[in-house]
Specification:
heterodimer; A: alpha+beta; 3 strands; 35% helix; B: 224 residues; Rossmann fold; nine-stranded mixed beta sheet; two-stranded antiparallel ribbon; 5 helices; 11 strands
């Protein structure tokens, strides 16, 4: 089963890279971009066939390694 | 007196850190990340700067889950000393031995220059030979040096006098201009600037030597 972990900086944490992207978009003429937040997507291909168990497992992975929960939040997306 | 310097794939300040320990009188052993034990009789563990595991995922994140870190945690639990510099500070935060996180500099640039730091506390074995409030110059060389922590952590660090060094001026967006912090028992120091690159006249800066000499004095007292 393919599961995605979507990892973002928590709301309120300044995102310097998002800000640089916003600035570059403005330079390219894309006006009106008020905010950009960037993060990462980690796609996992799991042997586990049960969606609920897969979701729980990826949540554990996020807590243990994939996200730094001091500054990042995560969401687990099932197919 | 013995110091162990951990070595990860991508560490590049490990030998500099070893030299700083040696100059202060330590016998130094380099310890590979796949080892699960520290050498017997280690007084202090140094976690060096660099780009461990290519900074993949997050700076320090993969290194913090390597086998030797279990031994580092046990050493710290027993009251042993540890210092993490730059990427080593990132590793210590990822292990949870120190609170907070380091993220991309506010200016999104790699900063590589000597900076002025305020010695924010002299109440620990690392900084006891500096005067509190005095200024030292160590080089910084980082892109992910922007220290962030919750209000709760910031309040605790300030209340417990656990901020070891502050940037004299804001260079990377760190909250409260924090450059280095101590653990609750004051025996673990993590900092972004490089005292080992300011520990020999040949390097043009010597303020860092005081820190390593102080570690050596603490180790000698403990061994006695």
């Amino acid at each position: 089963m393919k599961v995605r972990a979507v990892i973002k900086l928590k709301a309120g944490v300044l995102d310097p890279q998002g800000e640089a992207i916003r600035h570059a978009l403005g330079t390219l003429g894309f006006d009106g971009v008020e905010d950009v937040r960037q993060g990462k997507i980690i796609e996992l291909d799991l042997a586990e066939p049960d969606a609920q168990r897969a979701e729980a497992e990826v949540q554990q992975m996020c807590e243990a390694l994939l996200a730094n929960t001091v500054i990042e939040s995560y969401e687990v997306e099932l197919p | 007196m013995k110091a162990a310097v951990l070595v990860f794939p991508g560490s590049n300040c490990d030998r500099g850190l070893a030299m700083a320990f040696q100059s202060a009188g330590f016998k130094v052993e380099m310890v590979w990340h796949k080892d699960a034990e520290l050498p017997a009789g280690v007084d202090i563990v140094g976690v060096p700067g660099g780009f461990s595991f290519g900074d993949y995922l997050r700076s320090g994140a993969i290194a913090a889950r390597s086998p030797i870190v279990g031994a580092l945690m046990a050493h710290v639990r027993k009251g042993g000393h540890a210092i993490g510099i730059c990427n080593g500070f990132q590793v210590l935060l990822e292990t949870g031995l120190l609170p907070g996180a380091l993220m991309c500099n506010a200016g999104i640039r790699f900063i590589c220059k000597p900076v002025e730091l305020e010695v924010a506390t002299a109440s620990c074995d690392f900084t006891k030979d500096y005067a509190r409030g005095s200024t030292v110059i160590f080089p910084v060389a980082h892109r992910d040096g922007n220290y962030q922590a919750t209000e709760e952590i910031r309040t605790a660090l300030a209340a417990e006098d656990r901020i070891a060094f502050r940037y004299k001026s804001d260079i990377n967006g760190s909250v409260d201009r924090i450059a280095g912090i101590l653990s609750e028992n004051r025996r673990v120091l993590g900092l972004m600037p490089h005292p080992e690159r300011a520990a020999d006249p040949v390097l043009g800066m010597t303020d860092g030597a005081v820190l390593f000499d102080a570690c050596s004095a603490a180790a000698a007292a403990a061994d006695a």
